[in-house]
Amino acid sequence: MRHTVVEAQSSTADRPRPRRSSLERVHRLLSSFSYEHTQLSLSELSRRAGLPLSTTHRMVTEMLELGMLERDEDDLLCIGVDVWKFGLLTPKSYGIQRVALPFMQDLYATTGLPVHLGIPEDDQITIVESLRPRGSGPERPYIGQREPMHVVAVGMAMLAFSDPNFQERYLAALEGDRSADAPETIRRELAQTRATGFAVSQRKTAPKIAIGAPVLDRVGLPMGAISLVVPQGTATPPYGHLIRSTARAVQRTAWEQGMG
C-alpha cells in the first residue's frame, strides 16, 4: 500500500504543469494595473502578474512595440492608448453608455447629484459611466469598478428584474449570512424594487442614499441601471420617480436604436 502511495505521489510530482498560453499571460499583465496602481515598474508588474521577470521583460518589450503598454515620464509602465481604444468598442458597455449619457447629463444638470450607470457582469455590476460633483465622497465609484449586485443600487435594480432562476442562485450564495445582507433581507428589498420600479440602498453610500432604476431589454431583462445618490434625510419617492423616468427614457431610445 505504501509503495502505491509513493508511486502516486511521484507520478503527480512528475506530471508537467499546464503551461499558460501567451494570451493568458498578456491578460495577467494587463490585469495587474488598477486605479490604485496605474504605473508599475517592471519588477512590480512581474510580481503582481505572478510571472518570471525574464518572461515579463520579453512580453513587455513586445507590448510596448504594439502600443498595448507605454512608459510615463518616470519610465514606469502604464496601459497604452491602444488598449483604451479597444475598450471603447465593447458593445455591452459602449452601446448603453452612448445612449444613456445625454439623459444622465440632463439628470445631473437638474439635480446636481452624482449619477452612475452600471451593467451586469455575471453576479456583479460594472460601472461604465459616472457623473458627479468634484470631491464626492464614498459614493464616488470609478469607471470600471465592480461590485456584488446586492450592495449597490444599480445592482439591486438589475437583480430585481433578472431571471428568477438567476436570482435564486444569487440568493442561495448568501445563505448563512446573518448580517444585513442576509437572503431574507435582500429578497424583501427586491420585492419592493419590483413594486416601485426603483431600488433604494445605503450599503455603499451611507449616510447618503442611492436610488437605482433598471434599463430593460424587450424581454424584460436588465441591460443596465442608472442610479442617483441623494443626501441623508431626503424623501426618496420623488427622486425614485425621477430616476425611473430617466431609465425608461434610456430604455426607449435603446430599443429605437436596435438594442435589447
From TrEMBL:
Keywords for the protein's UniProt record, in alphabetical order: DNA-binding, Transcription, Transcription regulation
TM helices/strands, residue ranges: none
Keyword Transcription regulation applies: yes
UniProt domain HTH iclR-type: residue ranges: 20-88
SUPFAM superfamilies for this protein: GAF domain-like, Winged helix' DNA-binding domain
Location of region: Disordered: 1-21
Occurrences of domain IclR-ED (ranges): 82-260
Domain of life: Bacteria
Protein name: IclR family transcriptional regulator
Organism: Georgenia halophila
Lineage summary: Bacteria, Bacillati, Actinomycetota, Actinomycetes, Micrococcales
